[in-house]
Amino acid sequence: MPDPVWVVGAGGLLGRGIVSELRIRGHRVMTSSIPWHDAAAAKDALAKGANEFRVMSEGNRWIIVWCAGAGVTGTSQAELDSELDVLKSALSSIARELCQDKMGLGRLFLASSAGGVYAGAPNPPYSEKSEPQPLAPYGHAKLAAEQAVADFATNSGTKVLIGRIANLYGPGQNLEKPQGLISVFAKAFLTGQPVTVYVSLDTLRDYIFIDDAAALLADCLDRLAAPDIRPGQSVIKIIATQRADTIGALIGACKTVFKRRPRVVLGASPYAKAQAHDLRLRSVVWPELDNRPFTPLPVGIDATVRDMQVIRSLKGRL
Fold first, then answer.
1. Which of 98, 82, 88, 9 is nearest to 39 (CA)?
2. Phi (first) and psi of residue 227, to 5 degrees
3. Which residues of 110-119 are buried (b: 16+ CB within 10 A; e: fewer)?
4. Which of 10, 71, 214, 251 could cross-link 75 (Cys pair, CB 3.0–4.6 Å)?
5. Nearest to 152 by CA among 219, 220, 106, 83
């Protein structure tokens, strides 16, 4: 039977996607309701969750997938520091509950951000061998979280996978969170509102559909279990299509789906300086896992719009 999994942050886009993918593959998946708005209460809930997961795993192999994090490029330093503090507290709880007697049984995944950590780095495309160079506190916070889980791996004997994820999109994205250009375009299409773009239209990004990201991540977790990955080792893997599109091309794909060109207004933002112009990505770690078809941009955009239409229809009936 596949190893049990605890997904932390199961309410977000990536969390929901990986829960669905792992359940399809036969894993027992545990999720927890965490009061993220209250750091002290979140720490308590995560400690309780670690205890419940210890009981669920019954002393056997286990997997924890950490998809939590509400931070974006413009998030304050205080909020980012609080998120990191909660993560470190959770890692302490996990070590206490699951790693005391039987080291080497666990695997842990941390969702990080390719855009955050490589934003200021020279010479794209970026690979796992590229030196990270963040431009904003958000990127520095992601690197600090990566270091925290790497230290946890060393101290606990847990195998750790750090996923530096490209621009994730798809049905179910939090529209209140100020990120995700595809979701912004889709929402604007349904409301008739224009979209303000704060970077040049030749800005390059790697857009990966949620179902593709979840499937790739699940395969990476399987690969992490291989005997050539030793207990206590940390592996960094870029989760991306490895194909970059300009914002202009994204607008063209939206036009194909919407049957009309999105209304775009070029604006200015103090956060624009923290956005890289070219974020092409090339993974050199486990490249055999990247040899797969990825959802074409128009198909993914169409799925995102249809999901929003269903949600709007349901809200209209309430």
1. 82
2. -65, -20
3. bbbbbbbbbb
4. 71
5. 106
Report whether the peptide linkage leading into residue 35 is cis, meaning its omega lies within 30 degrees of zero: no
Q: What is the pLDDT of residues 203-217, one digit of tens each?
A: 999 999 999 999 999
Query: Which residue, among 183, 197, 192, 214, has the nearest Cα to 308 in the 3D structure?
Result: 183
Please state the separation of Cα 156 from the chain's center in Å. Answer: 24
Residues 202 and 170: beta-carbon distance below 8 Å: no
Interval 134-156: pLDDT, tens? 999 999 999 999 999 999 999 99
Pairwise CA distance, residues 170 & 182, whole Å: 8
Q: Residue 235 corresponds to which tokens in the numbers above?
A: 């592996």
Q: What is the pTM of this model?
A: 0.94
Sorted by sequence, the CB contacts under 8 Å of residue 154 that are 6+ apart come out as 232, 234
Give, to the nearest 10 degrees, the angle between helix 247-258 and helix 297-317: 60
Return the DSSP state at 277: S
| 3-state SS, residue 196 | strand
User: 62: part of which helix (H) or strand (E)?
Assistant: strand 62-66
Residue 105, amino acid = L
Element (H, E) at 111: strand 106-113
Residues pairing with 8 in the sheet:
66
